[in-house]
Amino acid sequence: PSLEYEELRRRLRNDIQEMWYYISAELNKFKKHIDEFTYDQREKEIQDVIKNAWEHKKSLIINIDKLKKSDGYDEWREKEAKDLSNLVQRRFRYLQNPTDCNKAKKLICSLNKGCGFGCQIHHITYCFLVAYGTERTLIMKSKGWRYHKDGWESVFKPLSDTCLSTTGTSHSNWPGDPSKQVISLPIVDNVYPKPRFQPPSIPADLAPRLEKIHGHPLVWWVGQVLKYLMRPQDHVKRTLEKAKEKLGFKKPIVGIHVRRTDKVGTEAAYHDIDEYMVKVEQYFDELETKPDVRRVFLASDDPKVITTARKRYSNYEIIGDPEIAETASVAKRYSDTSLQGIIIDIHLLSECDYLVCTFSSQVCRVAYELMQTFYADAYDRFASLDDIYYYGGQNPHPHVAILDHKPRKNGELELKIGDLIDVFGNHWDGFSKGYNTRTSMTGLFPSFKVKNPVDAVDFPKYSNIPL
Ligand code: GDP
């Protein structure tokens, strides 16, 4: 290891110790003298502690990132990520381009699930994963798409150059049997039995390599499927370039997605723009070299969000297109103009350095998944104001306790190493809520005491495609 690496490693250990010295000393002081402080003094003291603790944390993060750069493996990480991506893209192309479409085994899915663009993209991704898992070419039916009557190919490249026909000598509905040439797959909500190839499964033959290079292999895997599926037609490529130019989209930039209209109060809570901006501010504050301009790309289905943000945050350069947001509102959503808008917004969000959004929205989850295709490992380039990342309709897959936890307060959950925990959500305050399958209890536990294991499943190995 380099001298820099060894020095940083020791420094990090010391600095964690220093942070603990500081926080425990301040809290003890506070406990002892709490009655002597006036209300104003108390408030000021606490504000100081928050500020100082933040500085500690910021320095730790910056140094951890430096440690990664100086460990000698950065080049390997970049190359390994590229090699893996090329490998799965080759496999996808092979699967989707059979030499004889008349004989090829096929899986059929209809794009038109009765939901929004992100939801439909995730629907097709699930179909693609089942196709990959059953070694069948995915044939998508998309004519009369609610976003564009001409279907998928009005904006994205066809899924195949050789095989788009749904015909075959024998048909069956899922699961059918392997001898049937054509199998139709329903939407994930109605599929029975549940295919084991759907998320959170990842192929076991790739898992060891993936776990090494990526902090969230499932997101990487889904991102690779999106990379194949969402290849833009040339006119869409031009539209994207024009949109970037018109908006002045340049790095460094943070992407915000604010989901409003029909989502608020039904599937998600209202979050004020200030809540998003706190995260944006923290991101910029944590950068080692501060940019001249704090640029933010803001996408929403409510144009008012963009005007409000610009008014309140004049020290930021907030770019975004209120006209696109206007076409995104629930009343105007299913049209080709709105389709262009959502493609631009998702694409630009995915190209940002960091994403602030609500993972309850599929728009944001698609952007986060696509973002993974632009970095070796971008698992941590987000702040979600609500859910942790998940894949809609995914097979159950519990977290595992890696540390014991003894409840200290009412409502806390006991953990023993190895316990399987269904996690309902991270409260982003150090605690998550979950259900311990061993004790059948529900409660709060420190988020750092569990891990999300990878769900490696045996997929076909595509061994004719060279590694
Ligand atoms: P979810 O409902 O947020 O989980 O995501 P869906 O993608 O399933 O449905 C929401 C739909 O609203 C999107 O597909 C878009 O049509 C529209 N929409 C929501 N947010 C935005 C946005 O930021 N920009 C644009 N252009 N459209 C949006």
Indicate the topology.
Blueprint: H1 3-33, H2 39-70, H3 74-96, E1 106-110, H4 117-134, E2 137-141, E3 171-173, E4 182-184, E5 201-203, H5 207-213, H6 217-229, H7 234-247, E6 254-258, H8 273-286, E7 295-300, H9 303-312, E8 317-319, H10 322-328, H11 336-350, E9 354-357, H12 362-371, E10 382-384, E11 399-401, E12 420-426, E13 431-436, E14 441-446, E15 450-451, E16 455-457
Parallel strand pairs: 1-2, 1-4, 3-4, 5-16, 6-7, 6-9, 7-8, 9-10
Antiparallel strand pairs: 11-12, 11-15, 12-13, 13-14
Helix pairs in contact: 1-2, 3-6, 4-6, 4-12, 6-12, 7-11, 9-10, 10-11, 11-12
Bound molecules: guanosine-5'-diphosphate (GDP).
The site of guanosine-5'-diphosphate has 21 residues, from helix 4, strand 7, helix 10, helix 11 and helix 12.
Provide a brief overview of the structure.
The chain is built from 12 helices and 16 strands. Helices cover 42% and strands 14% of the residues.
Radius of gyration, taken over Cα atoms and rounded to an integer in Å: 24 Å
Overall number of strands: 16
> Major sheet: order of its strands?
8-7-6-9-10
- List the ions, cofactors and other small molecules found in this model: guanosine-5'-diphosphate
**DSSP summary: helix tally:** 12
Query: Share of helix among residues?
Result: 40-55%
Encode the helix/strand succession as letters: HHHEHEEEEHHHEHEHEHHEHEEEEEEE
User: In terms of per-residue confidence, which ranges show pLDDT below 50 for 5 or more consecutive residues?
Assistant: none
Largest sheet: 5 strands, parallel
Percent in strands: 5-15%
Q: Choose one word for the global shape.
A: globular
Query: How far apart, in Å, are the first and last alpha carbons?
Result: 30 Å
**Alpha-beta classification:** alpha/beta
- Average pLDDT taken over every residue: 97
